[in-house]
Amino acid sequence: MNEYDGSEDDADEGEGGEESAHELRISKIHNGTVIDHIAGGHAPDVLAILGIDSATDEVVSIGMNVPSDRLGHKDVVKIEGRELSQDEVEVISLVAPAASINIIREYDVIEKNRVERPSTVEGVLSCPNRNCITTEDEPVATRFEVLDDGVRCLYCGTIIRRRLTDHIDV
Ligand SMILES: [Zn+2]
Asked: Region labeled Disordered — which residues (predicted)?
């Protein structure tokens, strides 16, 4: 059993148990969102994007390094009572490009989408360049072009490759 998953019988069921275990996990949520197929070890990045930290009072379950047919190991985050905004999903795609987002209402999956990497993200990340126009008092929303291995500020050209979650501005 996975002690950290927070639910009773979500633990891996060994080889071939992936799909049934998967369905079980989803059925445990009443209303909310399941973010599935996060690359193993990246659940904390997703939580940071969503502003969920040790001070949260949201009901969140996290499965880390769960066996997965597709990814080898994956992380799963379940959030009760919250549906994600498009902006949040776009930023999640930057740290978890294989993720799928399941919207749950009354225990049913009413919507299931793979995340798509956008070509640009607006108003979500902050530019680390202090001289960038977006960091001054002007009401200029940030815009970053999404690269294969990071993002580039469309105003000053600064590239962020590591620790994107340090630059989240939501
Ligand atoms: Zn900039």
From this structure: 1-21
